[in-house]
Amino acid sequence: MNSEHTKTALVLGALSGLRTLSATAVLSHYLRYNSNLKIKNRRLKFLNSAGFALLSKLLATGEIAIDKSPNIPDRVRPGGLSGRTLSGALVGAAIYSINKRRIWKGALIGATSALAATFLSFYTRKQITRNTRIPDQVIGTVEDVIAVGGSVAVLEGDR
């Protein structure tokens, strides 16, 4: 097993724990514009499509905007937690498919990483806002930058 691909699935999964759709949107964008990144599994080929790339970017942008609202349920509640875990599984499976590995292993790595990162980021954000004067929206914006920038960085490093 190539440890680079495992690390990529692990990191993209964790970034899905910060923002559900950012890693998926960045990965789909990369799949559209980098000929060396192609999904091998037919069930995951939708990630290569222009329509999915556009839709995921629009949804990710909406998620970033909505996250700043105080009325949004906590990410550790069942809906947010399951979405982030599924997104982590998807990006992990995709990375393993690209590299002709067993997609279930990538899905497991991505999902586990997303699950752990969801809880870690939730409680870290709560602790920072409780112990500093930094507004929650500022911490959320830092998370946005980490989720999007980290996704780009890990995919650039995996090329």
TrEMBL record:
InterPro entries: DUF4126
Segments traversing the membrane: 46-66, 103-123
Entry annotated with the keyword Membrane: yes
Pfam families: DUF4126
Keyword field: Membrane, Transmembrane, Transmembrane helix
Organism domain of life: Bacteria
UniProt domain DUF4126: residue ranges: 9-155
Protein name: DUF4126 family protein
Species of origin: Fulvivirga kasyanovii
